[in-house]
Target: ABC transmembrane type-1 domain-containing protein
Amino acid sequence: MLKFIWYHVKSWFYMVVLILAIASVGRQAQLIYVQGQPYTNLTNSWSSVFFAALNAPFKLLSPPYHPILAKMSSYIPLSLFFVVYAFIGSYVFGVLKGIADVFWRKRIGYRAFQGLFWLLDAVPMFGLIVLIETGSMFLAMAWQGDPIHVIPNQHFWLGNFLRANILMVPSMMYLSRITNIAISFELGEEYLLTARSKGIRVWKLFRRHLFRNIVPKLLNEAPTAFIMILSSLLALEYLSFQDKGFMFALLAGMGQGELGQPSLYLDQGAFLIQAVSGFLLMMALFTTVFQLLAAWLRWRWKVVHNYE
Model:
């Protein structure tokens, strides 16, 4: 099991080492500064620069940065709501849509439903957010007072709800395609063909066999869905909440001073090294957790028909 998990996680660690190694041999990496002060005991050796780059994010925990971190932390609840809602919703609605795509694909009414989601999936996330925001502005001008609180903004819960649903569209469509492919593959397995030849309906085998076999595959796709949500969240926070979102405030504060936030770093090159390394390490941890969960489910359910 550990060998299987390492097979899926090792690429993230390899990328971290590669990023730090490339950064460490560059001349600019030997001049990494935090608020104009060089790292202590930093020599010109490759190893010291490598570990200085690895240790850089922990500098944020020092007292000078506490006020800025406290301000960014106040934005966590709203951003966390978007991430959690979009992640859970992507799995719930993505799996349901994938199942419907397999068993209802010949229904004329469902084809119209598929066309609507195809249109949403075809429009880039940035475009969807712009449509929501500009549409709400025109609605506000035409409908003074907003008597039933439907105009999306940061004050009305329905506005956040609409944005959260828009945020989960790309990852939901991705997981629905994975579910569709996994179920279609399972329907061709010998045990299901034998059961269907005996007159047993597929729905009776769905929960006990078919669905259990596709769950580990869906869990393996969790890091991909998470990346899609985070990449869209930054655009959503920038267009919808300006500096009120955690991801935007963090990016703006760590070297992007022109966006209106107090800069934590004077050297943007150092920020890029630390941001990329931190993101890859976070994804390695995230992948490990879901690989462990998928491996436990395989052991718990004793999956025999493995399609990986």
In short: The first strand starts at residue 33 and ends at 34. The mean pLDDT is 68. The CA atoms of residues 39 and 67 lie 22 Å apart.
